Amino acid sequence: MKRVLALLCAFFVTLVIMPPTPAHASASTSTVKLAWTYVAQADPKASHWNSADGALVGTGVQPPGVFRSFFRMDISPMHGKKLLHATFSGYLKSGACDPTVELWATGQIGPETTWRNQPAWKRNLGTGTVADGFDSCFFGWRIGDLVRDAVARGERHLTFGMRAASEVGPRNLRVFETDQVNHPYWGRFDTPALRFWYNTVPEVPTDPAISLDDFCGPGSRPATKFVPTTTPTLGAEVVNADRQHGDQMSARFEWADSSGTVLGSATSYPQQEGRHCTEVPEGLLVDGQTYQWRVRAEDHYQEPETLEMLSDVSDWTAWQEFTVDVTRPMLPVIASETYPANATGGLVGTSGVFTFAPGESTDVVSYKYRLTPGGPLAGQVTADAEGRASVSLTPTVSFRHTLYVAAVDRAGNAGPERAYSFTPGRNPAPSVVSTVYPENTPGGGAGVPGEFTFSPNGAQDVVAYGYRLDSGETLQTSADTPTVTITPESAGPHTLSVWSIDARGYLSWARDYDFMVN
Q1: Which of 272, 282, 419, 470 is the residue whose CA sits 20 to 30 A from 463?
Q2: Rounded to whole angstroms, what are the CA distances from 322 to 172, 245, 283, 407, 459?
Q3: Backbone φ, ψ for residue 411 (5° rounding)
Q4: So what's the pLDDT on residue 205?
Q5: Residue 128 half-sphere exposure, CB side, CA atoms within 13 Å?
Q6: pTM higher than 0.85 for the full model?
Q7: Where does the signal peptide begin and end (predicted)?
Q8: What is the mean pLDDT of the segment spanning 112-131?
Q9: pLDDT over threshold 90, residue 470
Q10: For strand 364-372 and strand 401-409, is the pairing parallel, antiparallel, or unpaired?
Q11: pLDDT tens, 177-219?
């Protein structure tokens, strides 16, 4: 039975004196004295400012007389908080553990405080409660209203006085601890102490933005107020000031039409701080219409000593405006002077300007394009105010090319691709002449050298010639020395293949020069 009573006592002390710790509990903290003193009737002029003694309360024989104690306590941590519950607690060092001690709110104290110069005794806070067990005695008073009012007045500390409920006998002196206690059961704690249970009202969410995908994170967000979906994902950053106490946070979103009529709302799943999001349900938003949305933070915490869950909310963010645009752009118009559509254009390796126009679309802001074969796999160019843009592309092979272009509107919608085909030109094959070995005519003989002279034949920017006899080694000569000597080693037909090389390194068509060796 004694063990049961002891456990009940421990529970009572923990409930009344110590901060609660269930999941999602309200935040709690404590402060200790800033200064203290006691006064003695028997020595009415003596000051005991910040004495090393214990705090004397009541009437005594040794020492004799009536004693009162005062404590200046810090309440500054409650500024900016929503105070739910507060207690003043003291630990009895010696004396009777009964509740006949009064706690008062008093005026200021200082080194000049004496029995004859006591502060005003302003408000009697009662005799409080007592918890006795495990060789310990705790006194506790509920002072939530007092602290709440003082914080509202901007005060940073409160002064409390302790006196016996009756100071005319029986003689009953109590001594309260004024420093740290190292208890074998309760551990180390400071006394006296103010204990606060509070909640921090959430701050207004920051970075309200619409995500372009379903990912609730720092992903792509529109740089404009146009969104390409009727079910946008709304999101904002929420800060949890009481995260260390396990408080959960939600974000409440509202969306409305352009006149401010609220069309719906949703609350994100409770979690810790970070980015919270919600998706506007299907069927509420219409293409081409303008809407607005806002968000506020809501926390979730537990009322002290109860199972009731409470919530505080921040102010709303400003309204965020957006327009739904799910209509894709039309086919763009493509043109190039250097490389006309479906025709042979400039020489391979020549840069050509391709211009893009929006056609029938009115809100084009950029174009996506890709060139095959041999061009960039993908590219994007910004349009001007009229929706026009241009790019410079350089075909690298002389085969037929296709440029695919799609217009992108202000909401990020990409339209269908238009295919624009063209063929880069190629320098003509060079001319070849030889006196010893005329074309398609017998001449020379095996082992007889012959000169062959190459000329551009209308090719542009020729800087060299490449040539090869039959299937032999490929050789090269400068355009400044276009004559080469070739010595056939056998009689019969031979083929000399010749091509020019321009300044960009591209080859012309090849010329096959056939001749007969005697």
Answers
A1: 470
A2: 75, 37, 17, 21, 58
A3: -95, 0
A4: 96
A5: 31
A6: no
A7: 1-25
A8: 96
A9: yes
A10: antiparallel
A11: 999 888 888 889 999 999 999 999 999 999 999 987 777 876 6
Q: Do domains 2-199 and 333-425 have the same CATH topology?
A: no
Q: Write out the two tokens for 82.
A: 């929503």
Whether 387 contacts 466, CB under 8 Å: no
CA 97 to each of CA 160, 182, 370, 383, 464: distance values in angstroms, whole numbers, following the listed order: 20, 19, 88, 84, 112
Residue 174 amino acid letter: R
| Per-residue tokens: 37 | 């003193």
The CATH code of domain 2-199 reads 2.60.120
CA angle 58, 105, 68 (to 5 degrees): 20
DSSP-assigned states of every residue in 158-217:
EEEEEEES-SSSS-EEEEE--SEEEETTTEEEESSEEEEEEEPPPPPPEEEEEESSS--S
**Which residues are bridge partners to 344 per DSSP?**
423
Of 476, 512, 488, nearest to 437 by C-alpha is 488
Closest CA to 353 of 343, 340, 342, 365: 340
Q: What is the CA radius of gyration of the chain?
A: 46
What values do phi and psi take at 3, rounded to 5?
Answer: -65, -40
The structural domains of the chain, with segments of one domain joined by +, span 2-199, 206-324, 333-425, 431-517
- Kindly state the tokens that stand for 185: 């059961």
Q: What is the CATH T-level fold of the domain 206-324, as seen in this structure?
A: Immunoglobulin-like (2.60.40)
CATH number for the domain whose boundaries are 431-517: 2.60.40.10
